[in-house]
Design a protein that fits this description.
The complex is a heterodimer.
Chain A (H helix, E strand, L loop, with lengths): L3 E4 L2 E4 L5 E7 L7 E6 L6 E5 L3 E2 L7 E6 L2 E6 L9 E6 L6 E2 L3 E5 L1
Parallel strand pairs in A: 2-11
Antiparallel strand pairs in A: 1-3, 3-8, 4-5, 4-9, 5-6, 7-8, 9-10, 9-11
Chain B lengths: L2 E5 L2 E3 L5 E8 L8 E6 L6 E6 L6 E3 L7 E6 L4 E6 L8 E7 L6 E2 L3 E5 L2
Parallel strand pairs in B: 2-11
Antiparallel strand pairs in B: 1-3, 3-8, 4-5, 4-9, 5-6, 7-8, 9-10, 9-11
Classes of the chains: A mainly beta, B mainly beta.
């Protein structure tokens, strides 16, 4: 199985900060990676697919990059709605696997 | 508007069975792969299984193989997860999700608790 490792596990930041979350795959997954945002008590929300393609309706302050084994999710200017937990998902092979999550907290 | 509504969760004893259902609306259900993803309380997301549009292909995470069965009824716009030989570690919120690779729409989830 492909292991997905996110860093950091927790991130403290302020409104307006630029935030970067990293996701590393245990083997190459090309660009078959998606990102999700989950607020407490809610279902995850789909943000990005194919590593860098923004889902329709997602604010442009979110961006994704990377290929192979290393990927990043960047929020260019953190907004109050962005304090949540973020997950990466690889869909290069079965079983599909998620990263363990990165919680973005208010500093 | 895409809607996915799960039902069937509840409290079950170890070794017991449960069948989850998901009714889809707002899109052509028969044109999409569908999946189940679960989340234990306070923990991260785990992909469980998915099924092709016509039901001809199914994939499972190793921890549920031989115990869980994913199925669908396109005439009823419904997705199912039959869960047998349930274990305490199966306790989680189970989400019905649309998609095979990335999954784009999620239900609100149904809680399954396996405990004596």
């Amino acid at each position: 199985d492909i292991q997905m490792t996110q860093s950091p596990s927790t991130l403290s930041a302020s409104v307006g900060d630029r935030v970067t979350i990293t996701c590393r795959a245990s083997q190459s997954i090309s660009n078959w990676l998606a990102w999700y945002q989950q607020e407490p008590g809610k279902a995850p929300k789909f943000l990005i697919y194919r590593a860098s393609s923004l889902q329709s309706g997602v604010p442009s302050r979110f961006s994704g990059s990377g290929s192979g084994t290393e990927f990043t999710l960047t929020i260019s200017s953190l907004q109050p709605d962005d304090f949540a937990t973020y997950y990466c998902l690889q869909y290069n092979s079965y079983p599909r696997t998620f990263g363990q999550g990165t919680k973005v907290e208010i500093k | 508007e895409v809607q996915l509504v799960e039902s069937g969760g509840g409290l079950v004893q170890p070794g017991g069975s449960l069948r989850l259902s998901c009714v889809a609306s707002g899109f052509t259900f028969s044109g999409y792969w569908m999946s189940w993803v679960r989340q234990p309380p306070g923990k991260g997301l785990e992909w469980v299984a998915n099924i092709k549009e016509d039901g001809s292909e199914k994939y499972y995470v190793d921890s549920v193989k031989g115990r869980f069965t994913i199925s669908r009824d396109n005439a009823k716009n419904s997705l199912y997860l039959q869960m047998n030989s349930l274990r305490p570690e199966d306790t989680a919120v189970y989400y019905c999700v649309r998609g095979e690779g990335w999954v784009d729409h999620w239900g609100q989830g149904t809680l399954v608790t396996v405990s004596s």
